[in-house]
Design a protein that fits this description.
The structure is a single chain. The chain is mainly alpha-helical and about 90 residues long. It is built from 4 helices and no strands.
Length: about 90
């Protein structure tokens, strides 16, 4: 992750030096989205860590039973069911 962020920083600097602000802004937006996605990954990793005992996620029992090995898969299934319910 840090290598990618460093590369984006170099791209931003390069485009700023060349007065190519639109490109620099584009790379800044990519960097911001990447950081947000990485932060979300860390949050899910924390929730999925079986060794932590201070946080939990509430999902329908039947979904949890079908996805005992993966919190992410359980969340994905719950999201799919939620979308189907909305239609």
């Amino acid at each position: 992750m840090s290598k990618l962020l460093n590369r984006l920083d170099r791209e931003i600097s390069f485009h700023r030096e060349k007065n190519m602000d639109n490109y620099a802004l584009f790379f800044e937006q990519i960097k911001a989205e990447l950081i947000k996605a990485h932060d979300d990954t860390k949050r899910i990793d924390f929730l999925a860590d079986e060794s932590q005992h201070i946080a939990n996620v509430q999902l329908p029992t039947e979904i949890v039973i079908r996805n005992l090995t993966s919190l992410r898969d359980a969340i994905d299934e719950a999201m799919r069911e939620s979308k189907q319910d909305e239609q």
